[in-house]
Write a structure and sequence with these properties.
CATH class: Alpha Beta
Distance between the termini: 47 Å
CATH superfamily: Peptide methionine sulphoxide reductase MsrA
Helix content: 25-40%
Number of domains: 1
CATH architecture: 2-Layer Sandwich
Length: 236
């Protein structure tokens, strides 16, 4: 019989839904996919942001924190009202929010297209409707919250490209319709969670493999030392 330490049990009680069945869960498999065929607009001189939802935000955040050119990746909530941007309410299915990650990146170093390729390939499984691995509910849906019309057009074109190529066993269910949805950062204890708790069962079984897949499939943008929210906040 496997026993959890008091610290792990306490973490489970605090974290809630992201810890469902940690030892029977399976990491979402990585899928080798082509880059977007659609041509992007020329990279701007400043930073860009995109908000991505794809299951528990711990893993999505951890993946993009290891991407070269990403300057910050913040766990939070998008798709609902500000008054509902609270983990207990979101986990209780009382809101329209999705657990999301706001990714800020330098397009001169990593393109939006590459961000999308990583998102669909290793960060989550885009064919799972309103769940991701062991986590079930609309808060774990696959959704891109575009910040510009160009982001929305490229995302939709890429989804159509991947579906036409049948790179996944099922149809992509990722939503892209909500433009510029307000993003609300999650509670402090959710930030940098995978880095701070690498031995926590959920992280070890579900999220560490995603980071390994990023390193294996995207070595050109791999960064060994993750960019953490705590460090990004210090530099701002």
């Amino acid at each position: 019989m496997i026993r959890f330490s008091a610290a792990v049990v306490t973490a489970a009680l605090v974290a809630g839904a992201c810890l469902l069945s940690p030892l029977t869960a399976r990491a979402e498999p990585a899928v080798v996919i082509p880059p977007p065929a659609a041509q992007e607009q020329p990279a701007s001189s400043g930073l860009e942001t995109v908000v991505l939802a794809g299951g528990c935000f711990w893993g999505v955040q951890a993946v993009f924190q290891h991407v070269k050119g990403v300057t910050n990746a913040v766990s939070g909530y998008a798709g609902g009202a500000q008054k509902d941007a609270d983990y207990e309410r979101v986990s209780a299915h009382l809101t329209q929010h999705a657990e999301s990650v706001q990714v800020t990146f330098d397009p001169k170093q990593v393109s939006y297209g590459k961000i999308l390729q990583i998102y669909f390939s290793v960060a989550h499984n885009p064919t799972e409707l309103n769940y991701q691995g062991p986590d079930h509910g609309t808060q774990y849906r696959s959704e891109i919250f575009p910040q510009t019309e160009d982001q929305q057009k490229l995302a939709r074109a890429y989804i159509a490209q991947l579906d036409a190529a049948h790179v996944f066993k099922g149809r992509i269910v990722t939503q892209t319709g909500t433009m510029k949805a307000a993003f609300f950062p999650a509670e402090a204890y959710h930030q940098d969670y995978a880095t701070l708790h690498p031995m926590q069962p959920y992280i070890a079984y579900n999220d560490a493999p995603k980071i390994d897949n990023l390193k294996r499939l995207f070595p050109e943008v791999w960064r060994d030392k993750p960019v953490l929210v705590a460090e990004a906040n210090k530099s701002n």
